[in-house]
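Trying the structure run again after the queue cleared.
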Amino acid sequence: MYELKTKETDNSVIEFIESVDSPKKRADAYQLLDIFTETTGFEAKMWGPSIIGFGSYHYKYASGHEGDAPLVGFSPRKAKISLYFATGDPNREQWLKRFGKHTSGKACVYVNKIADIDIEVLKELIIQSVAFLKRTYPES
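Done. Tokens:
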């Protein structure tokens, strides 16, 4: 059976941020911590070794695969900062058009630094993502 790697842990969010090598990326991580906490109203939790997540939901796919994941989150990675929003949200692209300098994958949006993006659009993306996941997985 598949074992989900990204689970909520009791590791310290602050200790993780303090372990980030780059002082600029560390400062961005603290700024994101404030933005995500204020916008979601959820306490930050570590998910796996390197994702800072906010809130959680339980998903179950048609294939039978199920698990828990943070509603939104971020990770200050070495190359770029990964921002985690809902997958499958049809409205995400309209927000990303006004977001600023970024690249995106299926679940992640990648930014080099916070100065490259519009903070108000980030807050809208966070709110939209949480609302989408709560509608999609109402039992959570």
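The chain has one domain: 13-135. Worth checking whether this holds up in the mutant runs.
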